[in-house]
Structure prediction request, 93 residues.
Amino acid sequence: MSLAIVRVEERLYTFEQASEVAGIPPHLLEWLLGQGLVEAESCYLNPQQLRRLIQMIRLHRDLGLNWVGAAMVLDMAQEIARLRAQLHYYRGG
Prediction:
């Protein structure tokens, strides 16, 4: 399965479903959850969490980042987006 064409529907995903959509073995998802690199709601991933997982897989696969590095890149990108929005707001935009 190519991750470039994965479409994430707006619903909750069990860990098994999330693993299948992301194209990874369930034990890897369980490990990522256990490390706190991917968050879940009880036994489900919401679409935003699944998108993060897919982005982490891309960074790991395409750029060779380790899992912690991939999570850090996504966290920093999210913080930059938040700061840009805040700056835009303060500039009156």
